[in-house]
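Supplementary notes for students who missed Thursday's class. We covered one full example, reproduced here. Read the sequence, then the structure, then the short commentary at the end.
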Amino acid sequence: VCPVNPPVCVFVMLVLVCGDVAARAFGGGGIYGGIQISEYVLYVIAFFGAPKLLRLGGHIRIDLVVSQLPPGVARIVSAVGDAVCFVVTSLLTYYGINVTVQSYKSGTLIYQSLIFPEWITFWPIPLATACLSIEFLLRLLQVREPSRERSAIPL
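Structure (token representation):
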């Protein structure tokens, strides 16, 4: 469901930072705006990595209590957790869209190395939280066994 590939973003950031360092080392002025772009790429990685991790079951899940419950009850508890997460990420999507649209309408600019509209920095939030909402909805529709997911922190 995620439209952005975080590993590709990491590669772009690697090229920008290494290129900037190499350009400075060989007497150039570096890549204009390279560090600023890398900062925003890092932000995109964080937001778009979350839906991918959720889909793969690689997110942090502390299931100390759920793992001790009978399978039927554990499924219900997991479904309730997914429902709460669906509601929260849907609200974040809604507010993220509002903030992005307001910024677009206001025409606010960011002045750093590069000058560009502020809304460009906001669009990843509603898009990534919409992807998370879809992932949580898919989890709700499947209601997977909690034991089938990998736990990032085995307890």
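Commentary. The longest strand covers residues 109-111. The helical segments are 6-25, 34-56, 71-106, 119-122, 124-142. If anything here is unclear, bring it to office hours.
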